[in-house]
Each structure stands twice: as structure tokens, then as C-alpha cells.
Design goal:
Length: 99
């Protein structure tokens, strides 16, 4: 997969989520693993996993995929800055699609 960039300046309603899903679909057809997560659901799930001891397993699942798609980034007040997702390995791609 090629290195991708995050585009925050694109206005709502122009198809960022659709495009992210299309890229994920293409990655699947090219035999790459893909995980699509909506940020408003992912970060509460991470907080819950910290509390019940499943955090290492969840982070392993997130870290193993070739392409991680994070959707609705700007809708979540609990979302960390983009530096938090930059810690993923250089062999993996992360696509963030804010609303």
C-alpha cells in the first residue's frame, strides 16, 4: 500500500467516509487486512478495555491490520490528537475520515 495523507480541510458531506470505505474495499480485494472503526465507538471501547483487562488484546487486533480506517474523527470529543495514531508501525496505513 502507498503512503496516504489525512485531509482535515474537506467539508462535510462530500464523501470522505465513502471514499475511505472504497479504499478499504480495494485493499481487501488486494488481500490486505482492513479494520473500519468509527472513532465515537472506538475510544469508549478502548476505555472499557482498559478497565476489564482486554486492552492488550484489542490493541493487538488494531495493530495487526494493514489498513486502519478511522471514521467520524472530529465528532468525538474524546478523540486524541493525530499523534496517537502515528505510533502505528510504518508497514501499516491509517486513514482518518473526519466528518
Amino acid at each position: 500500500m502507498r503512503d496516504t495523507r489525512q485531509y482535515d480541510a474537506i467539508p462535510p458531506g462530500v464523501g470522505k467516509s465513502w471514499l475511505a470505505c472504497a479504499l478499504g474495499n480495494k485493499a481487501c480485494r488486494d488481500n490486505h487486512s482492513v479494520l473500519y472503526q468509527r472513532v465515537p465507538k472506538l475510544f469508549p471501547d478502548l476505555a472499557l478495555a482498559c478497565g476489564d483487562g482486554h486492552y492488550p488484546r484489542l490493541m493487538k487486533k488494531v495493530g495487526k491490520v494493514s489498513l486502519l480506517i478511522l471514521d467520524d474523527w472530529a465528532w468525538s470529543r474524546s478523540a486524541p490528537t493525530s499523534g496517537a495514531i502515528c505510533s502505528r508501525s510504518s508497514r501499516s496505513a491509517t486513514a482518518a475520515a473526519p466528518p
